[in-house]
Amino acid sequence: MPKVTSKLQLTVPKAIADQYGIRPGDELEWIPAGESIRVELVRRKAKAGQQLTAEERVALFDANMERVDRLQAEQLKEARESNAPSMREKHGWTREELYEDRGFPR
Question: What is the sign, positive or negative, of the torsion defined by CA atoms of 62, 66, 71, 73?
Answer without folding.
Answer: positive
